[in-house]
Design brief:
The protein is mainly β. The protein is built from 14 helices and 73 strands.
């Protein structure tokens, strides 16, 4: 394992390029869509955060090129409100290093490596917080901006840069008032005093702390004026100041340092800076470069690189920094920013992995938001690779505990902490990376890796973190902060490829190099030329995953396809758009292409072969821009608005290259009828949306001839009268349960599928009392489960279910895909040679679900394969993910429970009396899923119980998955029987 003194002593500003910006040739901004990872949280190093007024929301900025706005007003975990997307390009363009929120909360400014690739100058982007619209672009800054700050009174904004010093803007016009270029490299931090009369800055390279008087700028000037600091001091014995912070009364200035374990407090009386005292840093092992005061000034906080046993510490001093200290465990990553909370405590964010959280005034964790990615840090030995290149073992945590195993050929993600069979497979088929076959030294956390004692041609600005030597010793790969570099055995570099994250681990079998990156992805590169051929992201829930090619062809687990999507620039002066991969499912969902990439190591050839077999036309990535769905923006009311009546007037705007053909409104994920709906097929309008007397989510979706938009969603908080429970209309439950064991085709017969459908239907009969005002159940098994009868059942479900009711569909039996990948459920009378006529197409299921008025639960067990212990009936693997993801998309709104993922077989055993999936469902509904003991079983509780129970029954060989649309909240589905 890499020692902490190496692994986590990264100089933080290395990530934002310490070198002085020099003039360069400008390039044209790309108009091609850019495929990016989107997990709902940051995937790149988080550099800064900013608090909104009243601490109702927080903004975070990261190297993944997004700003995320979070609602932190509640008691629980923060809720993502909005993602701001500046324009960007592949490579470093668009990385964000700072964010600031205006004191009134109306605007969000962000910047970093922004505009440099196009103009040779840096831009600051100013967004409208409520709508996400890019309001202004402030161009022409000579260096990459490391920090932004608004003055507390909202009159000024300051920016400090890697070169070019400091610049001051007037708000709200954002005209340049003045600046100071007399800085060394890397001005690192800026803060206004509490009254907005003074500005203090630090510069990492020249070592000075500067203090400016802003009174002369209270009167506007038509031209920018040079600024000179009233005080300019260095702290003796500490040359690289980091962040600084004014005390709440403005009388003192705390400063942290990169090069020394030191926190200095200066007297900031008027326009002078004088040493006051040094805080007690006894026992601190690494630098405390980030500082903040408590809101009442009684405590001083500092953090940065200080860690113990993989936990990063915030030190808190009493008596305004002069007293005793307390060390508070904060996160599992180096802290990149500290911000004071008005109610006491501090908020913080971290680098890699990107985390943000908060401590309250009693040093208790208020919340912690961690990434959904696997953590590959310090675990070079944990990345194992098969001889055929396409089975990998990887760590979920920064240790060797609880690894995962993924087979591309089988599309199977196995949690090895559960699976005995998977562990044996990994032991006998996978190999660890070779690191000692050649005399390569100084490659762990070093700026100077060597071969036979001679430095390798790796730029000094990059640290190397990982090494993999080819089995025949013909070459080797080194992973660095920003690149995968492959060398011949002689030490000559053969190729290098930019990587979207630190390359923490690598392995090679001589045909491919597999790299494990800081953003949680695994990437496959051809050894022959370095071309990337595949990328894989395993979600930390150990269920969801997505696998894709550079051009965007993908395969994904249920619930996994929207972990990637397309970023589309709209010019330099407008916010970018983002479209989830599901918007282009018909074009880019190509498991057949992925299969052939495995065989050919060439995406172009894989596409050609797959298209030839299926008869499909080749589609270029440019078609994404040609077939974009609309983009919906909700203009009013604002997210989080309190309402006391229904309907609520919602104003929207839909931009689309093609005419908008329909606009739909959903409340908590289900369609509602709105006043004026017939008039809404246009670019904007007002909608009278009926809502229930409770907190709810309202979503608006627009459609053009190509695709359906992502939902634009706002949360409404109900503050009106709430009806008493005895006057509420309880929902009615409708269940259609279908299971076929005795197919007319004897080759298709199964064991327990029909019994599964009967037992599932019976399980709901208990709930006609307290939860529902009535339960109606239709069970179709074996000879009754013909295509005609199933279609009649779907029509019955669609006709009977009102907006207040709950509809449940259960399918147990065989599924199959046609040559184009379309899923069919096989009724009892199915004929494989006449699939379109006799099979139940996914369009029949999806169209029914989309038009049901109430909540919809779908349970899909179309993967039966016979006995686990006895003779197993095998059949062709089914690609069921597409239909599950389509059912659970925002526009269709079903919660879908799937019996298995990827190409797994579902398992059944006569000892259980059911398939493993149905066994878990029935037990959960009968009360075992009531984890809280409240008597109510919710969707999330049932999901948790079924997931763990099925893994227990099958020894980890079957992994059920639940997919819930993002705009459908958790809700109760059953009452525990008394």
């Amino acid at each position: 394992m890499i020692r902490k003194t190496l692994l986590f002593s990264i100089v933080p500003l290395l990530a934002i390029a310490l070198s002085v910006a020099v003039p360069r040739e400008a390039f044209t901004q790309t108009s091609s869509p850019i495929l990016t990872l989107e997990t709902g949280v940051h995937t790149g190093r988080m550099m800064r955060l900013a608090l909104g007024p009243g601490e109702r929301f927080i903004a975070t900025a990261a190297e993944d090129k997004t700003v995320r706005l979070w609602d932190i007003s509640g008691e629980g975990a923060p809720t993502l409100m909005r993602i701001l997307r500046p324009p960007m390009d592949p490579g470093p363009e668009g990385k964000l290093y700072s964010v600031a929120i205006s004191p009134d909360g109306s605007t969000v400014a962000c910047t970093g490596w922004t505009g440099w690739e196009w103009e040779g100058k840096i831009s600051i982007y100013v967004f409208d917080r409520a709508t996400g619209t890019l309001m202004k672009r402030l161009a022409g800054l000579p260096g990459r901006v490391t920090h932004l700050a608004y003055s507390p009174d909202g009159r000024f904004m300051a920016a400090v840069m890697t070169s070019g010093g400091m610049r001051l803007y007037a708000v709200p016009g954002y005209t340049v008032l003045g600046g100071d270029r007399e800085y060394g490299e890397v001005a690192s931090f800026a803060q206004f005093d509490p009254k907005g009369h003074r500005l203090a800055t630090t510069c990492q390279r020249d070592g000075y702390i500067r203090l400016y008087d802003l009174k002369e700028f209270e009167t506007p000037s038509s031209t920018p004026r040079p600024m000179k600091p009233q005080a300019k001091v260095r702290v003796q014995g500490a040359d690289q100041p980091g962040s600084l912070a004014f005390s709440p009364d403005g009388a003192r200035l705390a400063v942290g340092f990169f090069d020394k374990i030191r926190v200095e407090v200066l007297e900031a009386s008027g326009m002078t800076l004088q040493p006051a005292f040094s805080a007690d840093c006894k026992g601190v092992t690494q630098e405390l470069d980030k500082v903040a005061w408590s809101s009442d000034g009684r405590f001083l906080y500092a953090s940065g690189g200080y860690n113990a046993k993989w936990t990063w510490i915030i030190r808190k001093w009493a008596d305004a920094g002069k007293g005793a200290y307390t060390d508070i465990p904060a996160a599992h990553s180096r802290i990149s920013h500290l911000v004071t909370l008005n109610k006491g405590g501090v908020a913080f964010c971290t680098y890699d992995p990107p985390i943000f959280g908060a401590l309250d005034s009693k040093d208790q964790r208020r919340f912690l938001v961690e990434p959904f990615a696997a953590d590959f840090r310090g675990n070079q030995e944990g990345l194992l690779l098969s001889a055929d290149s396409f089975t990998v073992q990887f760590p979920y945590e920064a240790s060797t505990k609880s690894p995962g195993l993924f087979s591309i050929a089988e599309r199977e993600l196995t949690d090895l902490s559960w699976s005995v069979f998977g562990s044996l497979k990994a032991t006998f088929t996978l190999k660890k990376p070779v690191t000692d076959a050649l005399n390569i030294t100084d490659w762990r956390g070093s700026n100077a890796p060597k071969l036979d004692g001679k430095p390798l041609p790796v730029p000094k600005t990059e640290k190397s973190w990982s090494l993999a030597i080819a089995p025949d010793k013909s070459g080797f790969a080194i992973g660095t902060d920003w690149a995968v570099r492959y060398f011949k055995a002689s030490g000559e570099e053969a190729w290098n490829r930019a990587a979207p994250g630190i390359v923490w681990a690598m392995n090679t079998n001589g045909k491919v190099v597999v790299a494990a990156l800081g953003n949680g992805t695994l990437r496959w590169y051809r050894v022959s030329d370095g071309k990337e051929i595949l990328a894989f992201f395993p979600h930390k829930d150990r269920k969801r995953w997505v696998l894709w090619t550079p051009s965007g062809h993908y395969d994904a687990s249920p619930g996994g396809e929207d972990l990637i999507g397309w970023h589309v620039n709209n010019g330099r002066e407008k916010e970018a758009s983002f479209f989830a991969a599901s918007r282009f499912r018909s074009t880019f969902y190509r498991p057949d292409v992925i299969d052939r990439v495995v065989a050919t190591l060439d995406e172009g050839e894989a596409v050609r072969l797959a298209n030839a077999e299926s008869g499909r036309k080749e589609v270029e990535a440019a078609s994404v821009r040609d077939k974009l769905p609309p983009v919906v923006t909700l203009l009013s009311p604002q997210d989080g608005t309190e309402v006391s009546g229904s309907p609520v007037s919602v104003r929207y705007s839909a931009t689309s290259r093609e005419p908008v053909t329909s606009v739909r409104v959903l409340v908590d994920g289900r369609p509602v009828t709105v006043e004026g709906a017939a008039k809404t097929v246009q670019s904007s309008g007002d909608l009278a949306v009926p809502i229930p007397a409770k907190d709810c989510d309202v979503s608006v979706i627009a459609e053009n001839r190509f695709a359906v938009s992502d939902p634009a969603t706002l949360r409404l908080r109900w503050k009106g009268p709430v009806a008493k429970e005895e006057f509420e209309i309880k929902p009615k439950l409708y269940v259609l349960s279908v299971g076929i064991s005795k197919y007319q085709d004897p080759d298709l017969r199964l064991g327990l599928a029909a019994k599964d459908a009967q037992d599932f239907g019976s399980a709901w009969k208990t709930y006609a009392g307290p939860m529902y005002r009535g339960v109606e159940i239709k069970v179709l098994t074996d000879a009754e489960a013909t295509k005609g009868n199933i279609l009649d059942g779907l029509e019955w479900l669609q006709r009977q279910t009102t907006s207040k009711d709950v509809a449940v569909l259960f399918f147990a039996g065989h599924g199959i895909n046609d040559p184009s990948g379309i899923f069919y459920f096989l009724p009892a009378d199915a004929e494989l040679e006449r699939l379109k006529r006799t099979g139940l197409a996914q369009t029949d299921i999806v169209s029914t679900v989309a038009t049901i008025g109430g909540k919809v639960l779908v349970f899909m067990d179309a993967c039966h394969s016979g006995n686990l212990m006895g003779k197993t009936k095998r059949r062709a693997a089914v690609e069921i993910s597409a239909v599950i993801n389509e059912l659970a998309s925002a526009e269709n709104g079903a919660v879908v429970f799937s019996s298995a993922t990827g190409r797994q077989y579902a398992l059944e055993n006569t000892e259980w009396g059911n398939g493993a999936f149905t066994k878990g469902l029935v037990e959960g509904l009968m009360g075992k899923a009531d984890y809280r003991g409240t008597g109510r079983i919710t969707v999330n509780m049932l999901d948790l119980y079924v997931s763990e129970r099925v893994k227990e029954l099958t020894k980890g060989e079957q992994t059920p998955t639940t997919v819930k649309p993002p705009n459908v909240p958790d809700f109760p589905v059953a009452m525990k029987p008394k």
